[in-house]
Design goal:
Two copies of one chain form a homodimer. With about 350 residues, chain A is an alpha/beta fold. Chain A contains 13 helices and twelve strands. Chain A is elongated, with a radius of gyration of 26 Å. Chain A starts with 5 loop residues before the first helix and ends in a 15-residue tail after the last strand. Strand 2 of chain A pairs antiparallel with strand 2 of chain B.
Chain lengths: ~350, ~350
DNA sequence: AATCGCAATTCAAACGTTTAAAAGTGGCAT
DNA sequence: ATGCCACTTTTAAACGTTTGAATTGCGATT
């Protein structure tokens, strides 16, 4: 399958394989003239080293692993594509490639991760979507295997490498924006899954609330399982038809915010006149859904690129202290937020 | 890095490495009792074979390669994520993993592909987005390296493995739908890049036109470079402000169709009253952009899954005849198409 | 003239598997 | 006793690299 071997190239040049190997590695023990001659021949014959052999002796694979998150049948967004694009871009700069493992039906994500690590197919892994008691992180930490998490643990975030969106700050910013527009009754549409970002985002909101020290402010939280559309719609309508309907509802992420827009329209509420809605992520559809969703740009691609850089550092330098990095999301102000209505519209 | 080796496992069991290797491979030359004993021990000790060693001797990597298409700074859609998800799902069923190579700045996609093939890192590759004279296919065919293209060549499609959306039929269907609603003046917003799907889709439209044999039917095509938003907008406005404005404009894919919707709104045209618009792909935003884009579901994830199956067949069975597969897109009728207006609105 | 030092190169082992070929073990017919 | 066969296991080579240790060649030093 592969073309030329080192041995063949060496015999063509009339030197030993060791010389060729060292020459190509740029070893200064090899005479400059020889190095050039070898490089030239390698180039001319199109020599490409066999990675399996190299990997076997060096113990390094040159791969970074990524276990594809298991997703429902109609998961819809650009997140994964952007993330993988950024990861690939970041890795290729350092000479690494990306290896993607999919979880077969009926097996756990952890078991696949374990297999990736123990088969020696990857020098490090990227772990997305961190849960509250994430067994993947526990495993990797214990095994001292290089990894960077996209997201962080709530307790013990100091103990692992991560890059995360600064959603605490972003959600505080969302609150301030709306508070300054006169809103006092807030709603948050959240998920009931045990992802840590749920807590961080809600915390951002509550901390900003506390800072205002305004007893008239209220916050109602409605949550539903992440991929359960029916329950999500029900949760949203609980807020919309509550005794005292919030004048501003924040979606934990854009899919939820878009559903809020849909349900508000269905209920006869005009956004932003009767209701302000804010999301997070800035997915493509956020720009198209009327009247244009105000949200935060999470910059997935750049984040992934940064994660790649961090992971390479962890693999090659094994820093003593865990690496942490917060990415500040940027407000994308569209048309779904506005001043508090003078008087709530009756439904 | 890796845990237990075969040798260690063998010595624990008091047999030779060959026996253990064969037992784990399920070789019937090994006594059933021994096979069971080995399997048990392997399981108990958590033995995971080193892939590099296995790959070195077998010459197979267990990987399918994918060279990430080079993309502009703000490419936006779910295509890549869906495609990779489907590919991963399809591959894992057959015991393959996915390996993603990114093209570094300043290098060609072909050179990266060549490297992937010749380093022995992949047993086969998937090639997306086929161009008119695609040098990647030429290389792979000449090298007899297993691959499946997503999309096909115009000439010589018979000579390579591919899976493609049946966009000829779909665009014919779009034409018929609109013709039956009374439309006679059609516009097509296309791209000027040399991708083969451009021709196939336009062909679908023209063939359906020919079938009607109606001399009053006209078709104006406006094209712009794929990622050039300014030129795209200009091309669309050329159609919208033409002497005889089309009453139905078809976008080669949804991004274009959505831009048509935006420009129509800006020009004061109401969709579908004054203008019908149809797209292709059914991206997420198609559902959110008012009034809801009528389009075709390309089912990327399922296609990718099927591609995985085809590629594994090519790798393992080396069929004499190239494999071809057409996927029929399904019309997603939303609200952007309607009957031809009685009288064109003046702009 | 013998020895040393040093640069350049080669030798050979190792990485952890797979697999063709050889070898060992009993049982059974001759 | 001998040979043969079927079944099971082992031996050893091979895959294509990297790399520590050994070797070579040669000018400089004694």
């Amino acid at each position: 399958m592969a073309g030329l071997t080192l041995r063949e190239l060496a015999s063509k040049l009339g030197v030993s394989v060791a010389t060729v190997s060292r020459a190509l590695a740029g070893d200064s023990a090899i005479a400059t003239k020889t190095r050039e001659r070898v490089a030239e021949a390698a180039n001319a014959y199109g020599y490409v080293p066999n990675v399996a052999a190299r990997q076997l002796v060096s113990g390094r694979s040159g791969f970074v692993g990524f276990v594809m998150p298991v997703r429902g049948p109609n998961f819809i967004d650009a997140y994964l594509g952007e993330f993988l694009t950024g990861l690939g871009e970041g890795l290729v700069e350092h000479g690494y490639d990306l290896f993607i493992a999919t979880v077969p039906a009926g097996r756990s994500e952890l078991s696949v991760l374990r297999h990736v690590v123990e088969s020696g197919r990857a020098d490090g892994v990227v772990v997305p979507r961190i849960g509250e008691a994430d067994e993947r992180l526990g495993y990797l930490i214990e095994r001292r295997f290089p990894f960077v998490a996209h997201g962080r643990l709530l307790d013990g975030a100091a103990g692992h490498n991560w890059l995360d969106a600064d959603s605490v700050t972003a959600f505080g910013e969302a609150f301030d924006l709306l508070y300054d527009l006169g809103h006092r009754h807030f709603g948050l549409v959240s998920i009931s899954d045990s992802m840590t970002f749920r807590h961080l985002r809600e915390r951002g909101l509550r901390e900003a609330m506390t800072r205002r020290n305004d007893p008239t402010v209220t916050l109602d939280v409605a949550a539903a399982p992440r991929f359960d559309r029916g329950a999500t719609v029900a949760a949203i309508n609980r807020l919309l038809h509550a005794e005292r309907r919030p004048t501003a509802i924040i979606g934990l992420f854009d899919e939820l915010a878009l559903t809020i827009l849909e349900e508000a329209a269905r209920a006869g509420l005009s956004v932003p006149r009767d209701l302000s809605v804010v999301g997070f992520d800035n997915i493509t559809a956020a720009a198209y859904a009327p009247p244009g969703l105000t949200t935060f740009e999470a910059n997935t691609r750049e984040s992934a690129r940064a994660i790649a850089g961090m992971l390479v550092e962890v693999i090659e330098k094994r820093p003593a202290e865990p690496l942490h990095r917060l990415i500040r999301p940027k407000l994308v102000a569209r048309a779904s937020h506005g001043p508090v209505p003078d008087e709530p519209r009756r439904l």
